Every structure is written in structure tokens, then in C-alpha cells.
């Protein structure tokens, strides 16, 4: 029986690239939910812009992942849209953090809690900035090229998000409480950003890129300084662990995908 | 009265009026109303398009849509800034929007129901907007004219992208996609014709605005110009415009078209269109739910002041 | 090019039945969002039960609509799942009221505003009760059979919802304000329930069932009494008109469908 | 002490204890803890299943799922009622749940990630629950035993429906569907084995509960019984249970199985499982957001009282 889902190559270099691509794609998807709903017009523009940059990064990475997969299997390369829209949930490899709703538990906020949103942006952009910087030394020239462009975007995203974290963390009592609540919920999703496995080991060995674990010191150091400046206190570490980067997600991703994939699924053979 | 005469002379000479120049109160108010309404239209217009951004069918189309929405936010920014030169703050203008005192373009009170609506908004809605706006690039009020030059350039780009996305579906797409495009055109055509406003005979502001160079071409003339330009594009696209009375009039050198349902126009302008309440409610909610963010930003900025002075 | 969407027959008898079936299906879908989130356990059970009854009614009606369509075109009957899951949005014919989110404008409520929910249930069940009662006289014996079962369910739904309308309308000041706010938003969606067109004219002529317009007096009379008992005041009529029964919906239905249809779309050829 | 002796005698004779009968405080508390925990499990268990109700793939499966969720709500009702006979109100029990003082079955802290999870919950989770619960139908506390008889009957039905839905996919479905079923089984198998609780050697309450006839079979025995029953069902289904050490032990007459990751068990019981916070938060939010409804219902009922008396 035919199925329109595609199965990406499970070669480690493909998985390494897809993990990053999916991180960009799914965060872009969440940020785009803000279109037209931000607290001020400048933020409507900034969040849309960040989403756009992330989509651009995802496109480049998906195209490259498709080619890496094709080289591995001597097959035809999956294109960016097949990879973005036609995989099953189990084959998306983003860490769980980026698929969480823009408002985690916070009732009432539509499309989300701005505190949670800017704090997550600060975490992910700090992490991506560290990652892109290290990918400048990749043995894969295509990754070097992608990282060279992306690092500039990530630097802007990081600065913008960090400004908001400080502004809101050290703003009013209410804003500080909202930021602290967001931090308390989000913190336990961070360890997944610093895990490693055989995919990372391969990437290191092949000089493709860094093991995620090697980003921890830099990212957590920067987050620590930022939170201190914002007068926010990280909660104690917990034994909670997410597994999105291995394809086992939260219950949120399925809803993102049903919306995101709908047109591709409902109009097979469509040309857009 | 000398100021008034000098102003009139400059207008008649086709000079531009700058923010620092003296201007009659009625001129100022008319412009403020028009520019703020235009700014509001840009930000309300983000909603029907934002409605499809999470469902865009390809990454390329998602990127194009995001970029377009971002541009519209930018247009809102320029236009609020241009209006602010006339003495009203952005917050005051937003308050007028949120309380229903200020209007925005009625076209955004129609829903986006399928993906082709996004392309159709680019092709027809932006197309109609450009027809309306190009003459404003020569508007007598310079800050508005300057904003419009930049906006029109970007709008033309959006229009081409919208048309292109429909063309791809019509030329290379499936039957279901073609039907989707036709369905979108069927729903948007008549509301787009209404975007040029009521017939000249019923239009209240036209004469004075013409005199001042705020408006340069009449509603009916713009509408005819839009129809004449669009019929041919529709033929290239391969869609049928939903007007059986549409036919070329050799004598007039224009396309004749059927009667516009002005009752619908007034109903939507009056607040009872398909999405009026939802659009406004979303803007109000975004503003209210964001209040704590704006307050915190202000509080933080105040905290920095003494530090800055001490340093 | 093949497309997995099905096109139902546009014969008036088919459209007449599909309008009712879609009303049941889409309201069931909205009510099922409440599973596990109701204000008291008894309501979790009641809302789930109502959703279940509505799904049952929809199934019977879809099966019948498929057969009517096949008789018309001498083709193969579309089955209940093809009709429920594989149409394009334009071919769903429920009135717009039932596709509105469970919380209309009310911020913060997840999965919805209980006031809006019970008030809509009262409106729709009163309307369905009137409709099922009249369908007892249909010339179509299958419709008579479906209506005979459904009328009992609708009576229970109507009683249950009406009890809540009174309880909340005449409860606390807060509950009264919530109910009145819900009523103010909902009222303008009611006229669509009493519109008629050539489909209704055909149904009357063929003694298939009543024109929707003929239900107005009974339904609005009952709603008037109920609202009076609940000390609620209908807002003034407006010229706002919805058109879901003609397939032109609100922006909400697309999101319902992308979720509801996802598995059928993503697993073509699947057997469940 | 005579009451205590009489109670002990009745327990030893296999008699049932009714709500009106005297019982030791520790017995009452143990039962209350167990029954309320069971009730909480039913209502928290509605959440992972409710997660798929809007996405059920056919109307038949949607109806079956809705009916199942409704049944679980009903089980919650009976069980709260049974627990109330022991002197605690439903609101008190819910408060204990919401503040984290009371537990619910840890299995519901795992996410439902694909449609086959719904069938797998029916087959494995309900299957394990039945193993645990059937002996409770002979529990010494009669109101609990009576509730359990009804519950077990419905659970068996749910289990068969769950298994059936997997069987349809495995026998008639596509490769993608079969992979979906295998994926679900891979994720649920080990957590289901943990549902029987820690090994007997580490189980704190077992001895006293056995003595009282609240518990009749040990954790390890139930677990073995479940595994023995399930291996064969898995073979019929055509799925692989994710345990390479699973093999028939002729001497024992049972299936041997691999080591259970008890660290994971304790982590999830301790609140750090994949969904603990989200499940509890959803219950708390539903309760808090519903407060106005309960208050209004109470206010309305009070208003009716004088009227009723006057009539």
C-alpha cells in the first residue's frame, strides 16, 4: 500500500542535521502563531521576522539533509517540503522544548504567554548561536555556509530576546512573577539540549559538528548571566527528561503537525 | 487668513506640505483620519493572512507569507509615524481603533477560508489597494506621500507574488487546487470592487479631498481602472470572474460590469460583516493581554534612568 | 491527478440530510474537546455522552446521505467515514453556530467557556428536537427511523442544557454576566438556523422534511421562554448573517477539519 | 477490644464489611487511600484518551472512544461514592489530588503519541488494571467490591475493544499502521509492567492489605500472570514485545522476562514522568476554571429552597 509519508535516512549525519532543522522549523511554527497578536507592533514584526529567519535556516538544512540522505542511499534526495511536511511524528527530531505551546500552563493567553515566548527564544537562540558558531569549523562546507548566514541571524535573535528577558524580569512585580513562573516550567526541558548519543559521537568523529553536550558550558554560562541580570532564579534541577531529539515527543507535536501538514496531506500531487 | 491663502496657493502649485508647515485644521483632521485608517488596515490585515501561516503548504510559501506579514507590520509603523506628525500619538490612534471610533479597510472583515485566499488577497486586494494608493504617492502631505512610495513598491511585490502563487496552482496544480482558486476568486471579487468606496455620487469626502490633493482620482474611475486591468489577468490565470455582466464595451473603451451590492457594503462597513467583531476583538485582546508587557518595559526603562545619570 | 477528497452528490435530498449530519458531527467534535475538563465530573460524563449521541446520529445520517447520493447518480454509495473525513471544507454544510469555539471571545478558558457551551447546547438541542419531531412525518422511512431514536436523545440534551441555562442565568451575578455575554455573542448566529432555500423547498415538496424556516416559531418561542426563566435578555437582532449551511464557513472550521481529518489524510488506505 | 476481635473474625471468615459496620481506623484509612486513588486514576485517565478523541480516524472509533471515556467518568463516580461511605467528601478527595497529597496511577503520566496508543491502552493498560482489580471484586469492604464488579465488567469490554482495534490495523492495515502499533507497544509495555507496583520484597502495604482481604494476590504474582496472558495475545496480534529476555521457562511454567527499570518507576511516581505536571495542571485548571459554575449551581439551588417551601 502506498503511503505519502516519507522516511528520511537514519544515517547519523542526516539525523544530526535534521535535529537542527526540526528545531528551527518547529520553533518557527510556534512563533508564527503570534502573527498579529503581539503586545506591541514592533514585536509583531520582530517575532514574524524571527520566524522567517528560522524557516530560512530550516529550508537550507532540510535541503542539505535530503542530499546527505541521497548520498548515503544512492537514491533520490528528499526535498525540503517532503522532509518538512510528509514525515510521521516519530521522525521529527527537534528537542521537546520548541514544540511546547507559547503559553505553557498559563491559562487564558492566546496565542500565548509573552513571558514564556521570549524566555524560550532566549534559550534557543543562545543555544543556536553557540551551535552555528561551532559549525563554522565543520568539515561539511555546506553546513559551514549555512552556519555563516545563520549565525548573524541568531545573534540578533539572541540579543533581542535577552533584552526582553531583562526588561520583563526586572520590570514590574507582575512581569517578574510571570517570567519566574515561565522559567520554573521551562527549566526542566533544557537538559535535552545538552544530551548526546551515537549521532553526536559520529558528528564529532567526522568533524561534522559539535556534540550537543559540548554546548552546555557555554550556553548555561550565558543563560546564568542573563538570568542574573534579569533577577531571575533558576529552579532546582530535576530528573525530568524529554526525548524529542529521539523522536519521542510530547502530546503537543501531533497537533502542530496536523495543522502544518494539512494541505500537503489533503491535496496529494498538489503544486504550490 | 494669509496663512490659509498661502496654503491654498501651495496646494494649487502642487507643492508638498511638511509637518512643520501651517495647515488648516480640517486638512489635518482629514489626513489624520485617512492615514490612521490606513495604518489600522495594515495591522488588522495581518489577521486574515496570519490565519494561514501555520498551514502554508510549502516552506517557500510560508516564508513568502511571513515576509509579507512582516512588511505589513512595517507599513503600519511608517503610517503611524506619518500620522503622528499630525499631532496624535500611536496609543491615541489605537484607542480609537479599539473603541470602534476609527475604521479600517472593510475588506479585512471577510474570512480567509482556503489557501488560495492568500494568493487572491495578494492579487486582488493588494491590487485594488495599489490602485487606491499610487495616486497618494503624489499626495500634498509630504510625510504621507513618502510613506506611500515605499509602501506601494512593496505592495506591488506582494501583488506579483500573490498572482504567481495562483498561477502555479492553475497551470501546474490538480483539479482540486484549481477549484480552490476559483472558489477564492468567487468570494473576493465583489468585496474587492467595494474597496474603492461608494459610487462618486454618494461619496462624501471626495470633492474636498480632490481639492487638497489628498485624493486624485474618483472612486468610480479607480474601480473601472482596476476592473480593466484585472479582467485580462484573470484570463491569463484561467479563472472566471463571478460577474455574468462583465463584457468589453468598445464604445467606452472599458469593461462593463454588473451591479454592486451596496447593501452588503454598508452592512460590512456598519460592523455586521462576517468577521468584524472577531477582527476587532483579536486586536483588543492582543492589546489588553499585552498591557503587562508594555508596563514592564516602561518600568524597566525608568529604572535605567538614574543608573544612566549616575554613570 | 487523484485526490482523496470525495465530492458528495449535490442533489437536494442529499444536501438536506448532510446539513443535519454535519450539524451533529461538528457539534460533537466541539463537545468532545471538553473530555476531562468540565467543571464537575457529572458534566464530563454528560458532555461526553451528548457528543457520543451526536456522533451516532451523524453516522446514521451520513450512511443514509451516501445511499441517497448513490441512488441519484447510480454510483457506489459514499460511506460514513468518507463523508465525515474526506470532504473539503466547502462541502461541509453545518450552520456556522456549531463550529464556533467553545469559548467565543472569552479569554483564557480552555477548552472553553462553560456558559457558551451550555447555551449553544440549549439552542442546538431545541432546534434538533423540533427538527427530529417533524422528521417523524417524513416520506423517507429511513429518516423516520433515525429521527425516532434521535428525538429521545435530543429531548434529554435539551432538558439538560436548559437546566444549566436557568441555573447559570439565575445563579450568581458572575454567572449571569457570563451567560448574558455568551448570549450577546451567540444570538446573531441563530438566524442561519431558520433560513431556507431551494434545498428546503425540495424537502417540503417531496415531504422529506420541514423547511428550516418553519422551525423558527417553535424554537424561538421555546428559547424565549427559557431565556426569560433564566433572566437573560436577548440582544437586538442584527443584519449579520452566516452561511455555513451553504458551505461558506467561518475561519474556525478549517482548524477543526485539519485535526479531525488528519489520520485519514495521513494514512491513505488505512483500515481502522 | 471486642469490636476489633469481632472485625477480625469476620475478615477471617471472608465476610463483607458494610459502611455502617465498625472498622479499625487503619483499615478505613487504607481503603480510603486506595479507593480514592483508584477514583483519581479514572478521571486523570480521561486525559490521555481525550487527547485523541478529536482525531479518532473513523466515526465508529470515535464513538467507541467517547463511550469508553464516559464509562471512566462513571467509574470515577462509583468509586468516589464508595470512598465517601468511609467518611470523606468528594471535594476533600479532589483537594488531596489537586494539592499532590493523593496519587493516581502513574501509567497516566505517559503521553499518547499516536492513534495506536489508544488501542494499546485498552489492551495493555486496561488489561493490567483488570488483573489488579478482579481480585478486589472479593475485597472485604463491600461497597468497594460491588463497585469493582461493575467496573471490571466494563474494563473487560474496553480491553477487548482495544485489542480488536489493534488487530484490525495489524491484519488489514497498511505497513505504516503496523509500524504505528509496534511503536505504541514499544512505549507502553514496560510502564504497564510497572503498574503492578514494586517487587513484593519492597512493597510496604502488602502484608496488612492481604490480611484484610483488600489485596489478595501479590504484585509479582499479578505481574507474572499478566505477562503470561499477554505474550500469547501479542503473538496473535503479530507485534514484538520489546524485551529480548522474554522466553518461556518450562520448569517454572511461566514466561521469564527482563529487568524492569525501577529507577524510572520511582522517577515517575515521584512526579518527574513525562506528563505528571501537565496532567495534574489540567485537572487543577478544570477545577479552578469551573469554580464559578459550581458556585452558581449552589446559589441557584439555594434560591429554589424558599420557593419550594412556599409552594
Automatic annotation (TrEMBL), chains A, C:
Top-level taxon of origin: Bacteria
Alphabetized SUPFAM superfamilies for the sequence: Ferritin-like (SSF47240)
Keyword terms of this UniProt record: Oxidoreductase
InterPro entries named in the record: Aromatic_CoA_ox/epox, Ferritin-like, Ferritin-like_SF, PaaA_PaaC, PaaC
GO terms, molecular function: phenylacetyl-CoA 1,2-epoxidase activity
Gene name of the encoded protein: paaC
Organism: Ideonella paludis
This protein's record includes keyword Oxidoreductase: yes
Gene3D superfamilies linked: 1.20.1260.10
Enzyme class: oxidoreductase
Protein name per Swiss-Prot or TrEMBL: Phenylacetate-CoA oxygenase subunit PaaC
EC number: 1.14.13.149
Amino acid at each position: 500500500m502506498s503511503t505519502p509519508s516519507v522516511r528520511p535516512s537514519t544515517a547519523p549525519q542526516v539525523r544530526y542535521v535534521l535535529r537542527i532543522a526540526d528545531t528551527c522549523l518547529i520553533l518557527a511554527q510556534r512563533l508564527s502563531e503570534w502573527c498579529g497578536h503581539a503586545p506591541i507592533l514592533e514585536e509583531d514584526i520582530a517575532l514574524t521576522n524571527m520566524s522567517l529567519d528560522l524557516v530560512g535556516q530550516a529550508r537550507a538544512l532540510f535541503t542539505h539533509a535530503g542530499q546527505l540522505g541521497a548520498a548515503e542511499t544512492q537514491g533520490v534526495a528528499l526535498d525540503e517540503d517532503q522532509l518538512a511536511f510528509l514525515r510521521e511524528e516519530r521522525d521529527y527530531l527537534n528537542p521537546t522544548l520548541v514544540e511546547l505551546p507559547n503559553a505553557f500552563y498559563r491559562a487564558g493567553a492566546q496565542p500565548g504567554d509573552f513571558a514564556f515566548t521570549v524566555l524560550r527564544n532566549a534559550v534557543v537562540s543562545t543555544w543556536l548561536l553557540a551551535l552555528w558558531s561551532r559549525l563554522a569549523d565543520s568539515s561539511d562546507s555546506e553546513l559551514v555556509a549555512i552556519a555563516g548566514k545563520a549565525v548573524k541571524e541568531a545573534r540578533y535573535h539572541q540579543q533581542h530576546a535577552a533584552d526582553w528577558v531583562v526588561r520583563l524580569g526586572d520590570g514590574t512585580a507582575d512581569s517578574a512573577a510571570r517570567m519566574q513562573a515561565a522559567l520554573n516550567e521551562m527549566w526542566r526541558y533544557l537538559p535535552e539540549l545538552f544530551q548526546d548519543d551515537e549521532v553526536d559521537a559520529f558528528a564529532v568523529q567526522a568533524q561534522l559538528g559539535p556534540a550537543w553536550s559540548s554546548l552546555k558550558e557555554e550556553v548555561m554560562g550565558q543563560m546564568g548571566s542573563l538570568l542574573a541580570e534579569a533577577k531571575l532564579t533558576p529552579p532546582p534541577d530535576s530528573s525530568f527528561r524529554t526525548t524529542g531529539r529521539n523522536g519521542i515527543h510530547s502530546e503537543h507535536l501531533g497537533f502542530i503537525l496536523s495543522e502544518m501538514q494539512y494541505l500537503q496531506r489533503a491535496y496529494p500531487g498538489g503544486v504550490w | 487668513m494669509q496663512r490659509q491663502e498661502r496654503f491654498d496657493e501651495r496646494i494649487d502649485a502642487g507643492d508638498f506640505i511638511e509637518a512643520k508647515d501651517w495647515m488648516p485644521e480640517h486638512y489635518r483632521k482629514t489626513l489624520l483620519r485617512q492615514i490612521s485608517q490606513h495604518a489600522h488596515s495594515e495591522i488588522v490585515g495581518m489577521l486574515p493572512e496570519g490565519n494561514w501561516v501555520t498551514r502554508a503548504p510549502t516552506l517557500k510559501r510560508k516564508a513568502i507569507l511571513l515576509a509579507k506579514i512582516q512588511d505589513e507590520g512595517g507599513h503600519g509603523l511608517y503610517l503611524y509615524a506619518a500620522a503622528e506628525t499630525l499631532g496624535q500619538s500611536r496609543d491615541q490612534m489605537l484607542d480609537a481603533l479599539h473603541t470602534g471610533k476609527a475604521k479600517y479597510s472593510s475588506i479585512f472583515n471577510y474570512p480567509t477560508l482556503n489557501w488560495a485566499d492568500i494568493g487572491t488577497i495578494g492579487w486582488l486586494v493588494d491590487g485594488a489597494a495599489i490602485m487606491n494608493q499610487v495616486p497618494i504617492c503624489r499626495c500634498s502631505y509630504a510625510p504621507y506621500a513618502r510613506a506611500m512610495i515605499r509602501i506601494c513598491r512593496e505592495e506591488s511585490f506582494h501583488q506579483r507574488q500573490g498572482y504567481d502563487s495562483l498561477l502555479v496552482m492553475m497551470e501546474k496544480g490538480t483539479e482540486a487546487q484549481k477549484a480552490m482558486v476559483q472558489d477564492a476568486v468567487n468570494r473576493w471579487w465583489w468585496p474587492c470592487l467595494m474597496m474603492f468606496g461608494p459610487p462618486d455620487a454618494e461619496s462624501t469626502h471626495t470633492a474636498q479631498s480632490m481639492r487638497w490633493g489628498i485624493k486624485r482620482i474618483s472612486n468610480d474611475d479607480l474601480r473601472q481602472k482596476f476592473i480593466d486591468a484585472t479582467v485580462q489577468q484573470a484570463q491569463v490565470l484561467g479563472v472566471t470572474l463571478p460577474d455574468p455582466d462583465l463584457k468589453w464595451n468598445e464604445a467606452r473603451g472599458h469593461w462593463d460590469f454588473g451591479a454592486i451590492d451596496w447593501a452588503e457594503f454598508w452592512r460590512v462597513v456598519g460592523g455586521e460583516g462576517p468577521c468584524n467583531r472577531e477582527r476587532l476583538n483579536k486586536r483588543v485582546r492582543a492589546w489588553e493581554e499585552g498591557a503587562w508587557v508594555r508596563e514592564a518595559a516602561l518600568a524597566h526603562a525608568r529604572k535605567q534612568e538614574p543608573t544612566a545619570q549616575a554613570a
